[in-house]
Specification:
This protein has helices spanning about 20-25, 45-60, 75-85, 155-165, 215-225, 240, 275-285; strands at about 5, 10, 30-35, 40, 95-100, 115-120, 135, 175-180, 185-190, 195-200, 200-205, 230-235, 245-250, 255-265, 270. With about 290 residues, the chain is of the alpha+beta class. Strands 7, 8, 9, 10, 11, 12, 13, 14 and 15 form a nine-stranded mixed beta sheet that branches.
């Protein structure tokens, strides 16, 4: 990643966050991660809508001058182009972070009227293996989050713990970990949402499990339903997933990534993609990119 970032309306190579920013003190802030395609941010409207909803919930007022204020291409295009050029990239992954800023009022009172914004860029991830990724069953449970539907907040310790459990088990950088909620219901990946196909029905975990309702997840659900494909949002245990014909992870950056196998502790396979072709075609067609 280049040291160059876009901070509060200006390019900077040395951004600083105050120790009194409530993001540093209390995790008060949110972020969105999206990719570009031919230099254009993908589904930016949806990412900003989720960001605005989260900020509004805790009283972060996004100033009109901020990039995050709107998806206006005249505002975004030169900044995105400059960061791609600084990184020597045609396309990349962008992270937009909003920190609450300081608030001298008693905790829980008053709005955050001077938040800070930072946009960074990094290279796209490497391609997944042609046969699909390995999905590892994790012991770290998904917590309940701040509220439902879960926001994409800077309070990221639950995912960090899951990522630390996953890291030594990965055989490929694109391998994922599967989180369950406290009741043992299938929830989501550490970094992505989950879909599976059984027969002619597509399934994905319900928001009640505590998952982050990803922008990519919403895009795929919308396209599946528009195509007349049966979709069910469910809160089920692994035994239901184990009967899937096809399984895939879904995220804004990679899109639909086929799962080749699911493994438990010690790398023991508990599911393989033996009859996945038709189900994967359904998901890939609906993704549409």
């Amino acid at each position: 990643m280049s040291a160059l970032s876009h901070v509060d309306g200006a390019f900077s190579e040395a951004p600083v966050i105050s120790a009194d920013d409530h993001a540093a003190l209390f995790g008060a802030g949110f972020f969105e991660t999206f990719r570009t395609r031919d230099g254009v941010p993908q589904r930016l409207d949806s990412h900003l809508a989720r960001l605005h909803a989260a900020c509004g919930r805790i009283g972060i007022r996004i100033p009109d001058t901020a990039l995050a204020a709107s998806a206006d291409s005249a505002r975004w295009a030169p900044v995105v182009a400059a960061l791609l050029e600084a990184n020597g990239l045609r396309d990349g992954v962008f992270r937009l972070t909003l920190t609450a800023g300081e608030n001298p009022a008693p905790l829980g009172t008053g709005d955050y009227t001077a938040p800070h914004e930072r946009l960074t860029c990094r290279a796209l991830p490497a391609e997944a293996p042609p046969g699909g990724v390995t999905l590892h069953l994790l012991a770290t449970p998904r917590d309940t989050g701040e509220w439902r539907p879960r926001p994409k907040s800077l309070n990221y310790l639950n995912s960090l713990l899951a990522a630390r459990e996953l890291a030594p088990r990965r055989e490929h950088p694109s391998d994922e970990g599967l989180l369950f909620d406290a009741s043992g219901r299938v929830c989501e990946g550490v970094f992505t949402n989950l879909f599976w196909v059984r027969g002619k029905v597509v399934f994905t975990p319900h928001e009640d499990t505590g998952l982050l309702p990803g922008v990519g997840r919403a895009h795929l659900l919308r396209n599946l339903r528009a195509a007349g494909i049966a979709v069910e949002e469910v809160a089920v245990g692994f035994e239901e997933l184990a009967h899937a014909d096809a399984v895939a992870t879904v995220g804004s950056v990679r899109g639909v990534t086929p799962v080749a196998r699911i493994v438990g502790a010690g790398g023991v396979p508990v599911w393989r993609a033996d009859n996945a072709a038709a189900g994967l075609r359904t998901l890939l067609r609906a993704w549409g990119e």
